[in-house]
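Exercise 7. Predict the structure of R-spondin-3 from Thinocorus orbignyianus.
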Amino acid sequence: VHPNVSQGCQGGCATCSDYNGCLSCKPRLFFVLERIGMKQIGVCLSSCPSGYYGTRYPDINKCAKCKADCDTCFTRNFCTKCKSGFYLYSGKCLEKCPDGLEANNHTMECTSIVHCEASEWSPWSPCTKKGKTCGFKRGNEVRVREIVQHPSARGNPCPATSESRKCIVQRKRCQKEGKGKKNREEKRKKSSREESKETRQESKGRAARRQNREQRENNNNNNNKTQPKKRKAPNRGESLEPLGAAH
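Solution. The predicted structure, encoded as tokens:
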């Protein structure tokens, strides 16, 4: 035992030295050597730090370093996260992924190559030309499909999602505007809306004229009440009998 071994240690140490720090740990704690300059100091921790893995023994629990290319590990031969520039695959850190796998730069792992997958084609659309289904003999019909699985970086690219081909149909005349039951119904509704609009306008006009007329009559009545009545002048053609004339 080192001559400077002390029993009154701090920080979870069971025994310690002024020069080397912890020499042994209390139960369930892990002993790990930390380098400070040219010297290594023993410390006791509840879990091993990043870059170390823990091993339990009957007399002591120790933390040992992972491999140089491994950032975190479960055991020395099983890495759980690689350092920059390496890709994780089956617990190992590789500079290049094996055949059939590709490097995922987001997770820094070797993953399976995913190819694009598309759904089945839809049925062909009706034959059309310039958006119409009548008035022509030769047109085009279209079918579509959807992408159900997008590819990974090295996967096969997706195919086209639409196809068009020429089609021939029996020519039929387009229904002219104004003919047919549907067009007659629309025209009748439009006429009814216009008539209703004109009726509303006429009603508003009559109401406005009635209001103006009543206003004028009220103004005339008020003027007649405030002005004195004028005496009616005799007609010039009437002759006035002199008073006291003898018959």
